Structures are given as C-alpha cells and as structure tokens.
Amino acid sequence: MKNKDTFIISKNKKVITSKETENKQIKNLIMYEGLEKIGNGTFKGQKLEKLKTPNSLRVIGAYAFHENALLSNLELNEGLFWIGASAFEGCNLSSITIPKSVNIIGNYAFSNNPLEEVTIDHYSTISLLYDYELYDFFGSKVKIKRKELVKK
Fold first, then answer.
1. DSSP percent split of the chain into helix, strand, coil, nearest 5
2. CB < 8 Å & 24+ apart, contacts of 32-41
3. Among the four 29, 102, 112, 145, which has the fewest Cβ within 10 Å?
4. What are 79-115's pLDDT values in tens digits?
5. By three-state DSSP, how is residue 131 classified?
6. No. of H helices and E strands in the chain?
7. 114: which strand partners?
8. Which long-range contacts (CB under 8 A, 24 or more apart) does 76-84 make?
9. CA nearest 43: which of 51, 54, 34?
10. Exposure string (b/e) for 32-42, b if CB count within 10 Å is 16 or more?
11. Which pLDDT tens digit goes with each residue over 21-76?
12. How far is it, in rounded angstroms, from Cα 33 to Cα 39?
C-alpha cells in the first residue's frame, strides 16, 4: 500500500515538473532509472529528509529542492550534468560530494545550508574554479575538499 506522503515517479517517466507535484505534501520520494530531468521548482518546500538520484538523471532544475528544510542526506549520481540555481538552497545539508560529471552549478545552488564540507572530484570542470568563486554556490564558511587522482 502506498503511503500518502510518498511520491513515486514512474519507470517510464523522463521528465518531472512542478505541475505534477503542486498541492502535495511529500516526505518520501521514489525515483526509478530512466528519469533524466527534474524541472524547476518541482519539489520546492517539501518535507524530504533524504534523496538519492538515479543514475539516469542529467539535470536538476532551478529551485528543484529549494527549502526542503529537513533534507540532510543527499547522494548525487555520476552522470548528473547540471544543478540549477538555488536547487538545494535552504536545505539541511552539512556535507555533499559533487560528482565529476557535473559541469554546471547555478548560483546559490547549495546556499543557506549548514554545509561544513564540499567534496569536488579533482578532474571535474568545477574543480577548475577558485575557492572564492565557489562561495556563490555553497556559502562563505564551507571547506572545499578536492579529491585527488589515486593510482592503483
């Protein structure tokens, strides 16, 4: 039986938009492989506590998870390319890892979070930015940790 606070994105869905989630109270989100884009503002102001994106996801739109004040556990997939402006602004994230596939992060994407550490893959194009430039994305008090290539 489906919990009324659970929102399931069907397996054949490639894009989800805010029109499909408006007037809903969502605490749990189930996303299947095949989803490629989460539109602007789709889960804005919901009650999510954790989020793991499917490997097929390429784009997270602006304000997609804005003001999910309980969201403290975020696992972004390798293959994700775009994180929109203010996508995770106003959540409860203390640390995040940006996958090396991410090429674009919109302004304030992770601002107003209690972030202590952001890990960026050494070979990501995002890693080419200076730390002071990254403050627009994460906030001024965060420690930027860059992964180095490990030879086996």
1. 10, 25, 65
2. 35/9, 37/61, 38/64, 39/15, 39/64, 40/64, 40/84, 41/66
3. 145
4. 999 999 999 999 999 999 999 899 888 888 898 999 8
5. helix
6. 1, 12
7. none
8. 76/102, 77/52, 77/53, 79/55, 80/53, 82/58, 83/109, 84/40, 84/59, 84/60, 84/109
9. 51
10. eeebebbbbbb
11. 999 999 999 999 999 999 999 999 999 999 999 999 999 999 999 999 999 999 99
12. 16
Closest to 51 measured CA to CA, from 9, 104, 10: 9
Tracing tokens 């894009």 back to the chain, one arrives at 15
CA–CA gap between residue 45 and residue 58 (Å, rounded): 22
> How would you write 54-107 as a 3-class SS string?
CCCCCEECCCCCCCCCCCCEEECCCCCCEECCCCCCCCCCCEEEECCCCCEECC
For residue 72, the one-letter residue type is S
Token pair belonging to 137? 């994305």
